[in-house]
Amino acid sequence: MSKRKVTFQHTIEYEVVNTSNLFHPQNRALLSVGKNEDARRFVVVDANVEKHHSAAIRAYFDYHHIEARIVAFPGGEEHKTLERYLSLARELDFFPIHRRDEPIIAIGGGVLTDLVGFVAASHRRGVPYIKVPTTLMGYVDASIGIKTGFNFNANKNRLGSFHAPQLVLLDKSFLQTLPRRHLLNGVCEIVKLAVVKDAGLFGLLETHGAQCVDAHFQDAQSEIILERAIAGMLEELEPNLFEEDLARKVDFGHTFSYGLETRHEAHLLHGEAVLLDILVSTLIAHRRNLLTGDETGRVFRLTETLGFALDASILDPDLLWSSLTERTYHRNGLQRVPMPRGIGGCVFLNDIRAREIETAVNNLEDWMNIKHENIR
Ligand SMILES: NC(=O)c1ccc[n+]([C@@H]2O[C@H](COP(=O)([O-])OP(=O)(O)OC[C@H]3O[C@@H](n4cnc5c(N)ncnc54)[C@H](O)[C@@H]3O)[C@@H](O)[C@H]2O)c1
């Protein structure tokens, strides 16, 4: 019997670039990769973004003599589906692009960039694409990594791939039109990172977070928070882009949230589910002496300061337990639940029990009812 070993190493490289006035004709960021002479672009734009920018986008490509097929796509989790994937894949098939030098352009929130990312990953087994996040969730999280996919069979992101973009363009002016609820939705991912990784970022959120939300993240403090959040996120993602290490700090808040967002998709945003998970986890961490009463109180007070309206009544302990069980499959047989150790520190637990979850849920409901100043 002969045996052959095939080894191939592939380097992933992409840039995350800050820009402004993205559709100003003199701004060449969108055309900085790929060919520009006699060229085409397949562009997918979130419908709520298109409302504000359709004329500018069209004018931009006309100005540069690029033949662009611009497709408006509705945002929202309910559209992250196989059917929407197929419809985009079909549209792309009717508008042939060169396989290497005419990148697809995805302009929208996390739903759009995840879905278009998978179109790019699967079309001709992989073509280049550019991500332009237009929500805070996309800006600090969904757009800067390499995961793509859509929901399938009542499971979040069940079908997908790792497919790196060629370029990520960050223009925070898109956040000016983002509704407050969606700004807060993105803030949850920043809180996540702050609690398990960056005590300094946590302090910045305590002091300036509410004002940043009011300013739609356009002021100077917002710039500092956004830069710090993205730097922290990339520090976690870059050495583990393909998730070979399944114990990931960035999964904090993503254990119990999975079941919550699956069951309550119609009225719970991803970040809102993450925040509920963060609070349950914080209480588990407190009971295990990983967080002091004071630190636990700071996490809870931050959510108040930022103005979240949370519905703890959906926290069914059985659902959270089954979500943990599902995540254990995802994490290859171990719970690997990231938990805060002090503000800014992280440990991974593999022995969380159903009873602990139930106690945390009861405590959380109590807190929501009486809004304790200090948890003892
Ligand atoms: N790939 C990853 O690593 C990763 C990480 C985090 C989250 N995600 C995914 O991201 C998704 C959530 O992303 P999201 O919160 O951006 O949702 P979304 O894409 O549905 O956008 C939220 C809403 O905002 C609207 N919108 C987008 N940009 C706007 C703008 N500038 N002005 C006004 N309205 C605007 C959209 O139309 C939509 O109604 C989830 O599916 C989640 O799984 C992926």
Your description of this structure?
With 376 residues, the chain is of the alpha/beta class. It has 2 domains: 15-173, Rossmann fold (3-Layer(aba) Sandwich), CATH 3.40.50; 179-370, Dehydroquinate synthase-like, alpha domain (Up-down Bundle), CATH 1.20.1090. The chain has 12 helices and 10 strands. The chain has helices at 47-63, 82-93, 110-122, 136-142, 180-197, 199-214, 220-237, 257-263, 270-287, 293-306, 317-330, 354-370; strands spanning 15-18, 40-46, 67-73, 104-108, 129-133, 147-152, 155-162, 167-170, 337-340, 346-349. Strands 1-8-5-4-2-3 form a 6-stranded parallel β-sheet, sandwiched between helices. A two-stranded antiparallel ribbon has the order 6-7. Nicotinamide-adenine-dinucleotide binds at residues 46-49, 75-77, 80, 108-112, 114, 134-135, 137-138, 141-142, 145, 147, 157, 174, 177-178, 182, 185, 270. Nicotinamide-adenine-dinucleotide is lined by residues 46-49, 75-77, 80, 108-112, 114, 134-135, 137-138, 141-142, 145, 147, 157, 174, 177-178, 182, 185, 270.
Detail the topology: elements first, then pairings.
Elements: E1 15-18, E2 40-46, H1 47-63, E3 67-73, H2 82-93, E4 104-108, H3 110-122, E5 129-133, H4 136-142, E6 147-152, E7 155-162, E8 167-170, H5 180-197, H6 199-214, H7 220-237, H8 257-263, H9 270-287, H10 293-306, H11 317-330, E9 337-340, E10 346-349, H12 354-370
Parallel strand pairs: 1-8, 2-3, 2-4, 4-5, 5-8
Antiparallel strand pairs: 6-7, 9-10
The protein binds nicotinamide-adenine-dinucleotide.
